[in-house]
């Protein structure tokens, strides 16, 4: 048995090659963490948008296009080259954002847009001290305790995936739901956040009426503004309410988009949903595509999900002092049992993507 010469430092032989390999991995991760700030800056300052489709640009030209200071822009561009986000031509001293990279970084309306993830980092890192206290006390860090960047970043991150899949794939995978929506149905979107999911459904089904519920008032106010901008306020409403007490009944469809695991009492939320469903109604539960088996999350998506669970999801649930704090990768078996205990006995995996799993649930 190896002895220890100092706290946590084994005195036995170690494989120095493996040490070096792991050191390189940690340095790579550290570089990515710092580079994430640059990605967020590029997104929020419009640098990627200005470079998209523009061809080779000098730093001065890009600064002029964005109204930013050239010295900062040049430094940012060099960091982008180092991260292989942007290419550089030394002969002309120009930088270019490849079209394939622009599809991920420059257009929020594309399904491949992922820059919203980096907006969240500002808020997540700001709560590190609170998380340290939570680890020691077992208390939570409420969703509302984070900065506005988390709410805006979360909405920005999930919106492209919802835009691409919600109407054409997810809703069509639910038996009979699209037909009801086309005729005119009543829908509750629980944990709606900024309401992008709600308004996407409303635009697709003009004969149906949609109500979004969220306990976070600033998000509800943002959702109301978005609905008004899109001319949907006559058929879409947003209210401050929890998943356990949202008003209304006779809903043909009740949706939970990437939020059920954040609730301290998911069973209570589903019991309330069961009571609020119309006869023959359906719950659509959209959850992160993570596994209860830690080893199965050893991939880029799983790594992002489980890290987000440590920083946001689990602390948010614990802050509500409910009977369960699932984290975002509790797995299908655990979620199915909660639904069954709530009176929702019919459970089916209806659709799946690299990021999400969509469940059709009913009585």
Description:
- The chain is α/β, with parallel strands linked by helices and 363 residues long.
- It is 48% helix and 17% strand.
- The chain is built from 14 helices and eleven strands.
- It has helices at residues 16-44, 47-51, 59-66, 70-82, 99-105, 116-126, 128-137, 148-170, 177-183, 196-204, 217-229, 266-276, 300-318, 332-341, and strands spanning 4-6, 9-10, 87-89, 94-96, 186-190, 209-214, 236-240, 251-257, 277-288, 346-352, 356-362.
- Strands 7-6-5-8-9-11-10 form a seven-stranded mixed beta sheet, with helices on both faces. Strands 1-2 form a two-stranded antiparallel sheet.
- Helix 1 (16-44) packs across helix 6 (116-126), helix 3 crosses helix 4 (70-82) and helix 8 (148-170) packs parallel to helix 10.
- The longest helix has 29 residues, at 16-44.
């Amino acid at each position: 048995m190896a002895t220890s010469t100092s706290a946590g430092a084994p005195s036995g032989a170690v494989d120095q090659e493996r040490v070096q390999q792991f050191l390189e991995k940690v340095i790579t991760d550290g570089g990515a963490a710092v580079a994430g700030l640059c990605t967020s800056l590029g997104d929020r300052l419009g640098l990627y948008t200005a470079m998209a489709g523009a061809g080779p640009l000098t730093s001065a030209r890009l600064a002029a296009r964005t109204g930013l200071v050239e010295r900062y822009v040049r430094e940012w561009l060099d960091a982008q080259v180092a991260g292989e986000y942007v290419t550089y031509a030394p002969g002309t001293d120009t930088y270019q954002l490849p079209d394939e990279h622009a599809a991920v970084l420059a257009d929020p309306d594309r399904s491949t847009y992922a820059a919203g993830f980096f907006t969240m980092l500002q808020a997540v890192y700001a709560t590190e001290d609170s998380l340290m206290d939570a680890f020691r006390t077992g208390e939570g860090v409420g969703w509302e305790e984070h900065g506005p960047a988390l709410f805006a970043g979360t909405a920005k991150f999930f919106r492209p995936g919802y835009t691409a899949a919600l109407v054409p794939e997810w809703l069509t995978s639910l038996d009979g739901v699209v037909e009801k929506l086309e005729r005119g149905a009543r829908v509750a979107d629980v944990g709606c956040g900024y309401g992008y999911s709600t308004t996407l459904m409303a635009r697709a089904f003009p004969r149906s009426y949609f109500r979004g519920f969220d306990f976070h008032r600033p998000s509800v106010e943002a959702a109301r503004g978005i609905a008004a901008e899109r001319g949907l306020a006559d058929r879409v409403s947003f209210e401050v309410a929890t998943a356990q007490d949202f008003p209304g009944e006779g809903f043909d469809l009740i949706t939970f988009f990437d939020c059920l695991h954040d609730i301290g009492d998911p069973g209570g939320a589903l019991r309330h949903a069961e009571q609020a469903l119309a006869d023959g109604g359906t719950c659509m539960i959209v959850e992160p595509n993570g596994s209860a088996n830690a080893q199965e999350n050893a991939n880029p998506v799983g790594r992002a999900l489980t890290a987000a669970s440590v920083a946001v999801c689990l602390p948010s649930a614990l802050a509500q002092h409910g009977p369960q704090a699932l984290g975002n990768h509790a797995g299908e078996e655990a979620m199915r049992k909660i639904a069954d205990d709530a009176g929702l006995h019919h459970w089916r995996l209806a659709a799946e993507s690299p990021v999400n799993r969509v469940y059709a649930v009913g009585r």
